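User: structure tokens for this one?
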Amino acid sequence: MKRFECVPNFSEGRDEHRLQQIVDAGKAVAGVTVLDVELNADHNRAVVSLVGEGDSLLESVFRMVQKATELIDLRHHSGEHPRMGATDVVPFVPLGDATMEEAVALAIRLGERVWTELHVPVYLYAAAARRPERADLAVVRQGGFEGLREAVRTDPSRRPDFGEAELHPTAGAVAIGARPVLIAFNAYLTTPDVAVAKKVAHAVRARDGGLAEVKALGFDIRERNRAQVSMNLTDYRQTPIHRALEAVRREAERYGAAVEESEIVGLVPEDALFDASEYYLQLNRFSRDQILERKLAPPSSSEAGDRSPAAARLQQLSVQELLRRVAARTPTPGGGSAAAIAGALGTALGEMVVAYSTPAKQTPTAELVGLAKELVESRGTFLELANADTEAYESVRIARRDRKAHPGDGAAQQAVVDALRKAIEVPMDTARLARRVAERLEAHRETMNPVLGSDLVSGLALLRAAAESALSNVSVNLADLRAEGIPVADLEAERDRLSGHS
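Assistant:
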């Protein structure tokens, strides 16, 4: 059977629980694999990548559109990215032997079903477009939800391909189509001036005489205090990533700015990255047959995997990548996650000391066996706490944004309080665990190999740092919870009890 990728974009980038419900609806269909989920709070948008055979993939995507229609109300939606629907755009991408014509047929079938069963108007775009101008998604989406809601009633050229001249009251309309592989590539500038990003985008995009097969917009990413040039490379063989990046860099320099960093949203063909590597490394006479993983990996390995809407699990990152993420100009992973990671490192050193504390050819005592098992479990718990701290911070940020968008809403107010309680609970658990592991190691100090005394000291120092850092996070969040009018005396007492061990 022929396989296709589908990359639905949903107008939800802040509520991970809501997005997870949408993704889970699609996962329930056998034969479909969710490859990637990316969400962006400033854009208030999520991009999901999934792959499967025609009928199964169509059913999976329909269920996701159905759930998004149920959960997302565009009347209360705001974000940097243009949008006209709860499910904003659904492209089918042919893979392997699948053809563009077959992808178009899937788009049409899905479009008919979305209108018939959900009463959400559908515009066919890209290779599936029935009007020449609708090959360009920007033309289809012009005016966004608010503008299209009025235009569809009065302008015959704006009427949908499936449906009546009236948008769904909360879910708007959806663009469904077929296209080749697209690379979503963003460049962050060293300035918060969005006017600069818009000028750069104007210079590099194809429709204004810039690079072939490049669409670009300038956005204000307030959370990072940076302007962003957001690009879609619709044919990376005509304009590869490195050429787009260099063009942005040159144009930004005209306005006294530079490229601070870049990012890829969703999935990317490996050849596109190899193109960039060859360019920047100035490789000559290089064959991609030299790539070790291509020699070793099974053919289907690139299609494996599944990601939740949360950030990549910290324990899956290399040390270099973990440090880069901590150092980046982003709020997470921050001090709470770093505290838990310090606890994991301290525990790991304790494990090493315990492992070397039984002479060769002797059986370890039951006490040391029990301690070793406890340390292994504690190390895993610390790593889970590192992830939980990142998720807790994101929950607080999202809850505050929702409350700001819905002042006076009791549920939104309670969500802030609940999120702050979680943001206190996680570092409190980190501090408790760090103290407990340190106490257990101290209790066995006399039975441990003295040659590794410095390693034990280092481990205990890391555990103390983990506890102190975590309690600092507790104090910050306690102040925020107190400001919400919530009594915190019991939590302060627990914090002070743990601090008393310093």
